[in-house]
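Researcher: Structure prediction, please.
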Amino acid sequence: MATPAVTTDQARRHLLARQYLLAPASGPVAVARALIGLHATSAPSPYLQLFARMDGFERARLDAALYERRELFRVRGMRTTVFILDEALARVVMTATRPLAEPSASVFARAVGVTEPEYRKLAAAIEEVLSDQAARSAAELKAELEVSYSLAGVVNLMCDQARLIRDRPLGSWRSSAFRYLRFDHVLPGFVPDEGDRPAAIRQLAAGYVSNYGPVGEEDVAWWSGLGVRAARKALASLADDLVEVAVDGRDEPQWMMADQLATLLDPPPANDGVVLLPELDPYVMGVKDRERHLVPGHGRFVLDRSGNATRTILVDGSVVGVWDAAADPTPEIRLHLFGGGSARHRRAVEELAVELGRFWFGEPVLVRWFTAMTPLDRRKAGGFLSPLADASPTA
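Model: Predicted structure follows.
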């Protein structure tokens, strides 16, 4: 059988549909499953990922799923990055990726002077303190246990060992400092087992190909953080469920789930839809080649030197510009289109920016266009979080 030929537009529209960027999702859990986790390194990003994929999304919906109904959980997984996952995926991800996350957290703990014997003693003491099921921050645990150094490395390592789980943030929805609960109080009966790891890796790879495909072996290796050997083995174990396709512009063999091929070859029509995505959104960050959805030459305005994607403006799945939020001197959403854009597109972007501004600041905001921006590869680390901070506003 000849390898089916797939156009870039077909592949892109299939991905848009799989990731709820053509039609809205019913709730946060559906989106988290479709993305194989809301990317949660940046605290605001999961809320904005949902804002882009749900009608009338309110922050309280994600908070309720995380902290009240316990449908979603914040755990470290692929590439030692923190994601928000449902219970089934959290168990799979932690089992598959624990050998990556735990050593990194151990180095962090040792860096602040915590030896292995001290860690064992502290971890047991923290579990005892948290036995009352009242969440506490690392600073609160430090004060209660009367230790002289930061417990950040300790609680991170305990999270990676399925002994603690991240709970509500200390500050607003944009805060990256969390309180902690005992893992067994939130997700009882789960202990990552090395013997379960091959099946977990296979399941993780299947989920990724299903929701990000067509993808290549290097995409699976990069996204999972497990490396080429593990990716190749996982794809081989899925051979009966996969089909190879040839996507124009991609040299490496591409794989997708065989039962999705007919849908991919006849994807939803282009809708010229406008979407504002947050920093580190999985749509842009989900493959090794993050310039896949960019016009050649625009990569340095969207990706920093580490490959982190900034806040983007999409039209029919292509990145056509970036946006930013600023509060000084007054709350505003800033917009920049690479090619200027049609009047119709600019109106659609402005209308969506008004909604986003109200979501971000809780009040009506100014929307301003910017004519030029400094490429992110010339900005300091973290510049992708404020891409238009030193841009030139339209006169």
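Model: The mean pLDDT is 93.
Researcher: Thanks, that helps.
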